[in-house]
From TrEMBL:
Pfam families: DctP. Residues 1-23 form the signal peptide. This is DctP family TRAP transporter solute-binding subunit. Coiled coil: none annotated. The lineage of its organism: Bacteria, Pseudomonadati, Pseudomonadota, Alphaproteobacteria, Rhodobacterales. Keywords: Periplasm, Signal, Transport. Belongs to the bacterial solute-binding protein 7 family. Its main location: periplasm. It is found in: Periplasm. It comes from the Bacteria.
Amino acid sequence: MTFVTRSLVSAGLLVALGLPAVAQTEVKIGYALAPDSHYGVAAKKFEEVVKAETGDAFDFKHFPSSGLGGEREVIEGLQIGTIEATIVSSGTLANFVPETGVFDIPFLFNGFDHARAVLDGEIGQDILAKFDNVGLHGLAWGEQGFRHITNNRNAIHTPADVAGLKLRTMENPVHLAAFNAMGAAPTPMAWPEVVSSLQQGVIDGQENPLSVIVSVKLNEVQKYLTLSGHVYSPAMLLVSKPFWDGLDDAQKAAFEKAATEAAAEMRGYVDNVETTGVETLKERGMEVNALSAEEKAAFQESIAAAYEGYYDTYGQDLVDSIVNFK
Ligand code: PAF
């Protein structure tokens, strides 16, 4: 039975019993990637848990693969209340809550446990709470993984290998500063334009975690993959503040539970693709190299000037407290 038929039958039963049919509240959820990506599986889990907790009070409509536009446009839709929910990268989040940008600093986290502990701890939760001041409500931090560079020009081992490389970055000033300091030619671009720009040679490369490279099949438009792990890429499950304010306490608790489970689902997907993704991409024909510890150190040194800017913007104490977080 389809969803519509089921709804009609249950509405019919209620009417037959002399009870009013309960209207479902629509939840449009938009995200940049496909239903079988880390965002897609998280969105599915989110819906399942909300429905299980609220007895089908909400009718989810999914808009995967940037069906509602780029991440910035979707977040703006949440602010004005035309879209209810999204799962987004941190790409444009600092344009809404500037403090979020601190997590976009390259070489900040030493691994997944470190990043997850910071996001789930006081520092991450304080920043999540700030979204309430800008027409949004942050429900949970998810993640994409550590970002790596793909391109069509050459394998990358040293900063000299990225010199002048036309590399698409997210519309994110923290990333932009780092790639400028490295000597690349970074081009900020909204995600929906990226694959066609790579195809047409408008840009040489891009950077994203394995979760994205594998699920989007970037191997079809990129030859080289360098496992640079230069920056951790958080994601966030966000809802519209006008929508959130319209929920009762039990519904809010249901959405919170659903977001926690959706974030866990997303991290589980990332854990899996981190172990299988490189092999998959090699099988699909990509030339893969991993930066050695020394090579990575050279990239870290190359962005020393950008780090001075990060300290000015976010405060060295905060950056150090994240780096040294135990
Ligand atoms: O590179 C980006 O813009 C993001 O990582 C993406 C692919 C849209 C996922 O949020």
